[in-house]
Amino acid sequence: MTGVNKKRPSGALSAPNSLIVVPLRHPMRLIAMLVVMLLLITLVYTVMGNPELQWPIVARYMFSPLILDGLYTTLLLTLIVMVLAVSIGTIAALMMLSRSSILSVPAVAFVWLFRGAPALVQLILWYNVSLIFPRVSLWLPFAGTVYSVRTNDLMTPFMAAVVALSLHEAGYMAEIVRAGLRTVSKGQTEAALSLGMHPRLLVRRIVLPQAMRMIIPPTGNEAINLLKTTSLVSIIAVGDILYSAQAVYARTFETIPLLLVVAIWYLIVVSVMSGGQFYLERSVARDETASQRGLFPRTLRNLLSSRRKVSPA
Question: Which of 236, 42, 290 is nearest to 125 (CA)?
């Protein structure tokens, strides 16, 4: 029956504010925090107070023109390789998803070869490709050889680094793109096609928005990993930041300070790239972010509305 007032027990509290809340104690958590803080203080004191690290020399070489030129080469190489790797990897992923074995089998072999071979081995092979092909020639039917150049003139150290790293990263990007496209269920594409949607519009409105949420995070990780992998190009005398530091400490014998300069610059660039990756992921998944932001207000409104519907005691 409605409208029946129930008496509150005499021992019940009249207001929630009169409750005494005792927080749960976590002694082990407090001990762990103290141990971690002690270790961090010890680490900072050891690193900053060690005279063998020669921090004044590190500060002197941080903005050296030779180091900055090497940093520019590293960033340029990373950008070029990433653009080529994404383009080649996307083509390979589409070929792998094809129903034709003439397209899918070569794409699978491409991924198997260039993803399986170490990046350093591919760098050295492409740098010495002139031992296999002394000249690169363009031959056309009924015209013969229309262009020919020595391989050593074409395959410079920078070009060898671009080719080797692009093919190596394309193998990983192909798997990333393929996995992202496979996350979109066939039911959505079949439903869109049955409604008469054009395939291009289907890809732009349905497939890509969902696939990009799965493609962008690992792609960002690959870009950061590629930035660090470019340090291998110093083996073939490409003037990246590590090669520039090696050129300096080979003359001055200040090995540790120059390596610290390289490490600090890598950490700075990686931090910037990580921040850009975070904002890019949030912009792609802005509908999910908005729904998460509105979860607490909706829950609060539902609770308040349900309390209004309850009859007063």
Answer: 236
